[in-house]
């Protein structure tokens, strides 16, 4: 007897509803989890906000759009990081909705749901979506670019040219990998007959003009900053190590797809029960060009991105794992054929839920239990609100002026710049990275210099004492983390640079 669960019936009858339910549920997890267990924002999010506060056209961290949007979201939420977390989840929702629209156009709505479900296990696991920045903002823009590219090449919809040009322009304002992404799309179009036919119209010229207008301010900044040159190529002696690095990055992408491989194996005939009559998810025949489109953009971004990472010795895949692996779920669905049989439905649901929830569960366990088993400090365990409030109030009481700038330890200074009344951040070890403030200007307008104290006297580190020779250290201030565990109390040394005049 055939058993068909309610979930399968919903996939068949209301595929769009299923997509919205799972995407919103996943976004809710990552929206409220950091608010509960994070004392400070993850990664370099505090630095992103510090750079966004200045509204620079360009910095060494890349194009400006993600930094501007982060600052706008932060201010809109009343100077609370909730606004940035919400913005990150909006990007995730937009990514998967755009992916579903693309999948529905190629394999139909029901199998499009399966493509989204599979891609969620990869994108969520390989790159969590809390740390908003260029990598997070690039995902929905890349998904929209692929959607509009298919509408142009596969469906011959000329009305999509304007949206395509907006996608390209915003990508150029988001990530340095944008040029490579656009070249991949252009390369696919040139390599196919229908793509070349699309490019013969006059519309691409107008689209190119829109792209140039959108990206022109950043392009001008690149020229003025002399930042158009590529990093130096490796020497011949380093090619072996760079090839190894390429293999490591590419292998990491393959490992990130482990959940998809497991689900495919569990759904294969090897584990099918005897006399089982599984439900079937049907699709109309796929356009051969659609198959080529899906396979190309499922493999090319990962291969090219990992090669660039190996060539220039980058820590992660160029462009981000969320971009490189976005089409992996749709590629598996296309390769599965017109009829997809869902065997062992309960087991498949359990494995899928575990794959999606595992990163959130891991973050919760690390925040609450890792401090009791290790002396490694989590960046998210620092009490940023208490740190920012203390130094902001202390400076105002001592000088009768609001805190205007903060320097010293980059991690601590970024947290204060975010949590206090948005003082300027000065990276005094590399002042060229913060061109809006110099050490001389800092000494003139005043501010707070902070560092991690190693003794009860609060002696500043030699490098900070050298850059600020007239510092008079204050009594170090101690702070408790969310969970101290085996970690020593966080002790911050600090000194006030009083404003001149």
Automatic annotation (TrEMBL):
It comes from the Bacteria. GO terms for molecular function: pentosyltransferase activity. The chain crosses the membrane at residues 17-38, 82-102, 114-142, 162-192, 204-223, 243-266, 293-312, 318-339, 351-372. Signal peptide: none annotated. Keywords: Cell membrane, Glycosyltransferase, Membrane, Transferase, Transmembrane, Transmembrane helix. It holds the Pfam family PMT_2. Residues 63-221 form the Glycosyltransferase RgtA/B/C/D-like domain. GO terms for biological process: lipopolysaccharide biosynthetic process. It is found in: Cell membrane. InterPro entries: LipidA_mod_glycosyltrf_83, RgtA/B/C-like. It is a multi-pass membrane protein. Its main location: membrane. GO terms for cellular component: plasma membrane. This is Glycosyltransferase RgtA/B/C/D-like domain-containing protein.
């Amino acid at each position: 007897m055939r058993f068909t669960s309610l979930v399968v019936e919903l996939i068949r009858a209301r595929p769009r509803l299923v997509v919205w339910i799972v995407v919103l549920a996943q976004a809710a997890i990552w929206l409220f989890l950091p608010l509960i267990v994070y004392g400070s924002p993850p990664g370099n999010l505090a630095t992103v906000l510090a750079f966004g506060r200045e509204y620079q056209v360009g910095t060494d961290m890349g194009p400006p759009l993600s930094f501007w949007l982060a600052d706008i979201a932060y201010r809109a939420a009343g100077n609370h990081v909730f606004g940035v977390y919400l913005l990150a989840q909006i990007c995730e929702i937009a990514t998967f909705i755009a992916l579903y629209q693309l999948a529905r156009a190629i394999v139909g709505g029901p199998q499009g749901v399966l493509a989204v479900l599979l891609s969620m296990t990869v994108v969520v696991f390989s790159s969590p979506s809390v740390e908003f920045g260029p990598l997070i903002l690039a995902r929905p823009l890349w998904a929209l670019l692929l959607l509009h590219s298919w509408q142009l090449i596969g469906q011959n919809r000329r009305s999509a040219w304007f949206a395509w040009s907006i996608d390209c322009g915003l990508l150029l304002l988001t990530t340095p990998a944008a040029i490579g992404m656009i070249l991949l799309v252009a390369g696919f179009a040139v390599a196919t007959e229908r793509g070349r036919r699309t490019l013969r119209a006059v519309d691409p010229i107008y689209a190119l003009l829109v792209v140039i207008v959108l990206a022109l301010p950043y392009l001008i900044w690149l020229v003025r900053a002399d930042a158009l040159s590529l990093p130096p190529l490796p020497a011949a002696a380093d090619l072996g190590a760079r090839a190894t690095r390429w293999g490591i990055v590419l292998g990491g992408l393959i490992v990130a797809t482990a959940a998809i491989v497991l689900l495919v194996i569990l759904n294969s005939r090897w584990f099918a029960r005897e006399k089982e009559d599984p439900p079937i998810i049907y699709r109309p025949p796929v356009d051969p060009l659609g198959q080529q489109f899906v396979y190309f953009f499922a493999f090319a971004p990962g291969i090219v991105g990992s090669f660039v990472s190996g060539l220039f010795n980058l820590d992660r895949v160029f462009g981000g794992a969320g971009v490189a692996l976005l089409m992996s779920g749709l590629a598996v669905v296309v390769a599965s054929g017109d009829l997809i049989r869902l065997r062992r439905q309960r087991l498949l649901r359990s494995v899928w839920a575990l794959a999606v929830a595992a990163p959130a569960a891991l973050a919760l366990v690390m925040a609450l239990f890792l401090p009791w088993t290790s002396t490694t400090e989590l960046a998210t365990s620092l009490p940023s609100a208490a740190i920012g409030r203390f130094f902001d109030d202390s400076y105002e009481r001592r000088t009768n002026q609001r805190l205007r700038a903060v320097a010293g330890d980059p991690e601590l200074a970024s947290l204060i710049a975010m949590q206090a009344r948005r003082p300027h951040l000065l990276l005094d070890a590399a002042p060229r990275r913060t061109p809006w403030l110099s050490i001389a200007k800092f000494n003139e307008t005043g501010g707070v210099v902070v560092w991690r104290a190693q003794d009860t006297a609060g002696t500043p580190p030699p490098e900070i004492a050298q850059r600020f020779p007239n510092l008079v250290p204050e009594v170090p201030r101690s702070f408790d983390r969310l969970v101290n565990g085996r970690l020593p109390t966080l002790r911050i040394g600090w000194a006030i640079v009083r404003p001149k005049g």
